[in-house]
Design a protein that fits this description.
This protein is an alpha+beta fold and about 575 residues long. About 55% of the residues lie in helices and about 15% in strands. It contains 14 helices and 15 strands. Strand 10 and strand 11 form a beta hairpin.
């Protein structure tokens, strides 16, 4: 009788893999005189018994075959119960899992107390619900560290949640909690939205108040508009991050209220906790390095604070040194500040979070490559700017002529110089172009503030040079903006074949609102008036033959009276 019962139970195992299960549990013995239903059942039972007693080599081969095939996951009411790895003859683990799910769903629909238990027979464990076998656990089905008790607990939890889902009262209660959590979420989101606007305005106000203190190398890093934009970006990022966390908590809480979606809510919360733990762990591990980096930056700031009084004295003119003056002190201070900060960054770099990671190194290499390839022209312009500053070629407010460009220097930047002409134009010249061109400075040789005004005229030899000198000096005196002291001078720069070249040089005030082009235009107008009043033609004679009379000035006419002299 015992042998017949054992054979029947093992036949049920094979029938589970090939067809519907028998309703009787394996531990219930058949009635007296009971026999297998037919000859095929007896043969199947004998085959199962012989398979259980196979050699270890056969079992190892079966395990290898099962590992090669696709595993089957048993899901009961959205809960993972067990994953099958071992196949049966002619049945893959995926098919076993599907049949186990179907049997579990049938038993859940049938109702009952929902008690999960196990039964073991000849080395095979059966998992049962209310005494009915759901699936067997073959050698190789359990993962490393997994026990049959864990499988029973997982199935028992799925049965319990299914019973909750069929309870109208519990579902109504879950719906009420879900609606209440939704109202709380909407209210918290509204509070976050209001806080975002208030915090953005507050940070923008503080940024506008202290934006001047954000400087590197004496240069203001952020203007007021940028500070306001940065405050808005910061508040927006914080708002959306908090809103995302709040939405995740609301979604997880709502999913956990309902039995079928409870697993998704638990997974969502577990992922949040895992992410938060990773972030906190990373922050805790990076705090010592950040502390060292902060100390290095504070030391750099202190060193720069010690150099500020020295540069201030040089800029005021209290210190007179050969290697630095008030015109180069600003550039020198910026170079020192940038050098100190770069040195501090290089010292603090190994202590920054993620500095040793491959991603951080890759970004550093990429930035270095981009700067190496694309900044060669910028580096040249910057070095040319330093050459202009330390060679004293240009200064702010000076009137210069660079090639064909003439005007007042209004700005001297790292890469370019801006010049405002007297024609209502503002020109931007690259520093490298200025270094490679001839620069004529009209302000460097004047006495005090101002610039040089000069013009050239060619007059024939038949006009007394003393008269030309007097008329040109008088025209300069009539011109508004030209200084009387130092007095204008006239130079005879060339004695050509047919005429004399005269050059008038005078000094004009740079503080007057009249640009050099306007002063020069007024000077030319006054020259024309003076020469017309005295009957002298402004023209350069050219001869094709000998003149009838020699072009000389008699001594009696060397110093004729000038008309229009004031």
């Amino acid at each position: 009788m015992r042998a017949i019962a054992a054979r029947a139970c093992l036949a049920a195992l094979l029938a589970l893999a090939t067809g519907p299960l028998c309703a009787a549990p394996p531990d219930v013995a058949p009635a007296a005189g009971a026999r297998p239903a037919d000859k095929a059942s007896a043969e199947l039972a004998e085959r199962a018994a012989s398979a259980a007693a196979e050699s270890p080599l056969v079992l190892a081969a079966a395990a290898a075959q099962a590992a090669a095939e696709q595993a089957g996951q048993v899901m009961v009411f959205n809960r993972p119960v067990v994953r099958f790895y071992a196949p049966l003859p002619g049945v893959t683990p995926a098919v076993r899992a599907q049949r186990a799910q179907d049997e579990a769903a049938r038993l859940l629909r049938a109702g009952g107390p929902g008690v999960v238990s196990t039964s073991s027979l000849m080395g095979v464990d059966f998992v049962m619900v209310d005494g009915v076998s759901v699936f067997p656990l073959l050698p190789g089905d359990l993962e490393h560290g997994q026990t049959i008790d864990g499988v029973v607990e997982a199935l028992q939890l799925a049965v319990k949640e299914h019973r909750e889902a069929t309870s109208l009262g519990l579902m109504l209660r879950a719906t009420g909690f879900a609606l209440l959590s939704t109202l709380v979420f909407v209210g918290a989101a509204w509070v976050l939205w209001r806080t975002r606007h208030w915090l953005g305005k507050s940070l923008a106000s503080l940024g506008q108040r202290y934006s001047a203190r954000l400087a590197l190398g004496g240069t203001e890093l952020l203007g007021r508009d940028r500070v306001v934009a940065l405050a808005r970006v910061f508040t927006s990022i914080a708002y959306y991050m908090l809103l995302l966390i709040l939405a995740s908590e609301w979604l997880g809480f709502t999913l956990r209220r309902f039995p079928y979606t409870r697993r998704w809510g638990e997974q969502l919360n577990e992922s949040e906790l895992s992410l938060a733990a990773d972030i906190l762990r990373a922050i805790a591990e990076s705090l010592p390095g950040l502390g060292v980096a902060v100390v290095i930056f504070f030391i750099a700031r202190g060193v720069l604070g010690l150099t500020m009084p020295f540069f201030a004295q040089v800029e005021r003119g209290d210190l007179d040194l050969e290697w630095i003056d008030k015109y180069t002190v600003r550039a020198t201070r910026k170079l020192v500040n940038i050098g100190v900060w770069l040195f501090a960054l290089a010292m603090a770099y190994p202590y920054l979070p993620g500095a040793e990671s491959d991603a951080f190194r890759g970004i550093s290499v990429l930035l270095g490559l981009m700067l190496t390839i694309g900044s060669s022209n910028l580096v040249g312009q910057g070095i040319s700017g330093l050459i202009l500053v330390y060679s004293h070629t240009l200064r702010l407010g000076e009137y210069v002529r660079i090639g064909d460009v003439e005007g007042t220097v209004t700005e001297m930047k790292t890469f370019a110089v801006r010049i405002r002409t007297g024609m209502g134009e503002e020109l931007t010249l690259p520093n490298a172009m200025i270094v490679g061109a001839v620069t004529k400075n009209y302000s460097r040789t004047v006495m005090g503030a101002g610039y040089i005004v000069d013009t050239v005229m060619t007059i024939g030899y038949d006009t007394p040079w003393r008269q030309v000198h007097a008329m040109m000096i008088e025209a300069a005196r009539r011109t508004e903006g030209v200084l009387e002291k130092p007095a204008p001078h006239v130079f005879q720069t060339a004695l050509s074949d047919f005429y004399v070249e005269y050059r008038l040089v005078a000094q004009a005030l740079a503080s007057t609102p009249r640009p050099r082009a306007q002063v020069l235009a007024d000077l030319h107008a006054n020259l024309q008036d003076l020469f017309n009043e005295n009957g002298v033609q402004i023209m350069s004679p050219h001869y094709l033959g000998d003149p009838a009379e020699a072009k000389i000035v008699p001594p009696a006419k060397w110093d004729p009276p000038m008309i229009g002299k004031r």
